[in-house]
Amino acid sequence: MKVQQLVAKAKQAGELIQGKDIVLLIGETGTGKSTTVQFLAGCKMSVTKVRINSEAYSDHITTTEPFKYPGLEHVISSPLCRSETRYLTPVTIPLKDVLGAYENGDITLCDAPGIGDTAGPEVDLANNVGVIEALKGCKSVKILVISSYTTLGGRGEGIQRLAHILINMIHGVEERLESIVYAFTRYPPNENINALLLNIKLNKVDQDRYLSRDNVFVAVLKDMIQKTENDKAYKIDPIHGDRKPLIRELQRLCGIQYPQQVIRFSMSGETREAIINQIQRDKLNVICSLKHKDSDLVLYYLNNVKIFNELIEHNAVQEAYEVSKKSVNESFVKHCADETDKIKRLVASNVELKQKDLEEDAIPKLLAHIFTVWTIINNDEYNELRGLESSNDYLLMPHVGQVIAIFRILGIGYQEDKKLPIINITYKKKISDDLVNNLVEIGTGEGKSVVIAITACIFALIGADVVCSCYSEVLSERDMNDFVPVFRALGIEERIKYGTFNKLCEQLLNEQCNLREKVRDMILDNKSVLDIAQKEKIVRHKVLLIDEVDVFLSEKFYGGMYTPSLILKDPYIKELLDSLWKNRDIRSLNGVKALPAYEACASRYSNWISLFDEAIKDMLATLRSFKPSTYMRKNDRIVYVEGESVTDNVILGYDTIWAYYHENTNGNISSSSLEDNVGIIVNCGTFSYAEMPYEFSYIAGVSGTLKTLAESEK
């Protein structure tokens, strides 16, 4: 389809004029716009005889030397009355080459397709669309209007058509006439253009009741008359003419700002009728392609209809687009449901975490169905049906490297050479009947999140609980949000969890009970023994998938400890902290014991006074060295930068507690926030990150730097 091809070319041209001030040539097909660009670019030109049919020749002006500026090679003039320009073609000319070495800057001329192209309605549409598309990114537009004597007509019909081209193309053209200059091609040397225009005004327009009432048309015609007075008309003589006066005039003009809001699309009635017929055919082709399950043709024809709908305001076009979109949506929804049913049937007999089960055809088939659901859910039309917006005009599909990575994570393809004794024959054997923990290297930007999410789907579908862990909270939330629609469609949303390494620790520690609540209740109730939580039997396998496994294996995580803690709060404790902050000159525990607030706490928490004493020692030590420098304030909270995230659930010991008091004293933190966030810090235990993997039946990880891992880490 020419519309799609030419719009793509127009977008490429748009990149060349991004942010530039340009001069746009406008005129009917065959008026000599391309020749004018060549003339203004300083091309040497001559007249040649060109055969136009078997019996006749025509004079044609062509260039006689190599092109000097980029883009001129695409500026093509035709000896016939047809447009050779199919998309906006920019040519940038340094002003010093035209006006002298003292001039700075340049001028960008844009050769545009002819309006009312003789090549047919579709090309006429594509020409208009191409101009509008290319102008979206430029800074400003000056208009050079080309009128040709050959298209003038007996009563000046060509001038009328040209004026209406401007009216239809430039919104509010009567207010932007200062951005327009007129040039005239192929007019006889002695022709008085101003007199010709004035004659059209007096003898044609003023005598026609309809034309004389067209205020915008009359304003444009008057502007043409005014700008050609006193022999100021710019006649283009490509062979003997001087380009400097017109270049200076174009340089002087004020361009139209925000052209994407001013330059608009227009087309002839013939083109409109032909396009409406075409879009009806495309609508039927969409429906027919759906019946034959030809997705390439569906997307091709649907894209045709979509382009027309975006460009043409017409009920028939909108109706065809809505019908086409509805048909595609219904097909997508049905296909997604069918794929989900296939997945459910396929996994019914594959519920064990055994490599022999994963080796069979079931897993590749299962993977294909999951990726199909993923592609459908990420399709524009499916998202639009669900009320979501998307700017993607393509289908998401897995890369072969992602598919292979998933197979390797699932243990498919791992074999080793074995030899039969005596006969000395080598054969291949699986390294294990069970899944073997392994790591896969996937480069940055190659889709680690896709590999982890789809692998998680497979494990969840065969009955496992899956944890996808990452060092960054931002990345973890992003990946989860990207794939939740897929998990939900497959009915496995509750079996797949995303989170940071710290969050993973929290989940494991609180699996049987809420550790912090148990410790808090024990102290607040002044008990000396913790109630034993009832242990629940785990009935499903657990799988751990680690993103950026090299970060997990760093000293900070795998080589470190996780210390869950809680802030013990009640009025007695708040009073004790207030007393310590007010009496910052107290340096010892004995000094604190003399405070009434301490005596109240000692009476209230008699079984835990030793815990309070140790906490007070930490408070005093921190208070002596406290400096308000390592934190930030956000939403009435003390926050810290952790990795790539800003988090408000990190407590750096009593530095954070005293930071709240410091900011409250300075009026930066409210009293309610102070009361909610201060107390005695109680450590609930110390747990090694290295112990986490032992809680899982299977572990796999992806990394972009697998080669840098030590053998012990692997």
Structure report:
The chain is of the alpha/beta class and 714 residues long. Among the domains are: 2-267, Rossmann fold, CATH 3.40.50; 268-348; 565-683, no CATH class. Helices cover 45% and strands 16% of the residues. The protein has 27 helices and 23 strands. The strands form seven sheets. Strands 1, 4, 5, 6, 7, 8 and 9 form a seven-stranded mixed sheet that branches. It has a five-stranded parallel sheet with strand order 12-23-15-13-14. Strands 18-19-20 form a three-stranded antiparallel sheet, with helices on one face. α6 (193-205) packs antiparallel against α8 (215-227) and α12 runs antiparallel to α14 (362-377). The chain is elongated, with a radius of gyration of 38 Å.
Question: What percent of residues are in strands?
Answer: 15-25%
Gross morphology = elongated
Q: In CATH, what is the class of the domain at 2-267?
A: Alpha Beta
- The CATH homologous superfamily of the domain at 2-267 is named P-loop containing nucleotide triphosphate hydrolases
The biggest sheet, with number of strands, parallel, antiparallel or mixed sense and barrel status, is: 7 strands, mixed
Helical stretch tally? 27
Straight-line distance between termini: 54 Å
How many β-strands, per DSSP?
Answer: 23
- Give the integer mean of the pLDDT values: 79
Second rung of CATH, namely the architecture of the domain at 2-267? 3-Layer(aba) Sandwich
Structure classification: alpha/beta
Radius of gyration of CA atoms, rounded to a whole number: 38 Å
Query: Per CATH, what is the topology of the domain at 2-267?
Result: Rossmann fold
- Spans of at least 5 consecutive residues whose pLDDT stays below 50 are 349-359, 381-393
Helix content: 40-55%
